[in-house]
Amino acid sequence: MENLNSLSPIQNKRMTCYGGVVAAAALPSPPPTTLTTLPSSPSNTFVRVREVGSGGAEDPNTVVKQSVDGFKWRLLVSYDGTRYKGWQFQQTPPTIQCILEKALTQATKLERKDLHLVGASRTDGGVHAWGQVAHFITPFNYDSLDSIHAALNGLLPPDIRVREISAAVPEFHARFSAQGKIYHYKIYNDAIMDPFQRLYAYHVTHKLNAAAMREAANHFIGTHDFSAFVNSSRNDGMPNPVKAIFRFDIVKMGALLQLEVEGSGFMYRQVRNMAALLLQIGKEAIPPDIVPKILATRDRKELAKYTSAAAPPHGLCLVAVKYNAEHLQLPLGCPTTSLGRHHIVSKCKVPFY
């Protein structure tokens, strides 16, 4: 399998991209990519550890101080978010975390409260992921991860897949160790929608000015207060509105226009709100230099003057999460990372006549 992990350093820190690059076409056909697992760390022997910082039983994503004995495991998860109400746990309607926890409880025979499952990004309802990262804890070790990997994917519905399972050092935390994230937003800009793209790209019939959108996207690059681009209807536990955008590219591939944004972190609906404004600029309804003016106000009401709602969720995909290299080190004595088992057809020994 191809290995995509030669990404440039950001903020003078050695970071590794945990995930991959989503295919330019429909989400179900991504390129073959794998995670980078680094050499074992002699200072992190794989033994029973105590973790501090995982959430409580009612909401594993809540920021509370809690010590947990056990072995920590890292998951790389992909999902089609069409049928789900986002990542974060809730019973009805189902969420990705809810479905994944049910599979984990069956595979590990543990209670949900004992797993302490945490995701790197709490994607919204209808949003997809190619490189979501999560971790969970077990009170026991595994000699091999291939069996639980196969069991999980056998229990999960076909629109959710665990791409990889690996051991994690005690210091790793899927959410709080993250140093950056990459999102793609897809727009299908043509008179007639491609039916194979309908679940993964937002259809816009108005001819968009990609050059104007690129000019506007450049204004987002850098460190800014993004208060004007965040919806305040949910407390995501990250009150600091100052975020760094490392790159914001507008890539045109025929009728498909892909907005690729990479940053230190993103607040609730920030990417979809930025995409909505870029769409208005692409339609030439407003000029590209409106972006710094809106940013300067730090007021969500100012953005509402130019776009009434965030871009629809189905065009958005979490592509990858970035971590410092030391957080991706494998503990000594841990089982080999599982990338999934391939079935091999044995040679037929029955003679043919």
UniProtKB/TrEMBL annotation:
The keyword Lipoprotein does not apply. Keywords: Isomerase, tRNA processing. Coiled coil: none annotated. It comes from the Eukaryota. GO terms for molecular function: RNA binding; tRNA pseudouridine(38-40) synthase activity. It holds the Pfam family PseudoU_synth_1. Residues 77-176, 216-324 form the Pseudouridine synthase I TruA alpha/beta domain. Its EC number is 5.4.99.12. It catalyses: uridine(38/39/40) in tRNA = pseudouridine(38/39/40) in tRNA. The keyword DNA damage does not apply. Belongs to the tRNA pseudouridine synthase TruA family. This is tRNA pseudouridine synthase.
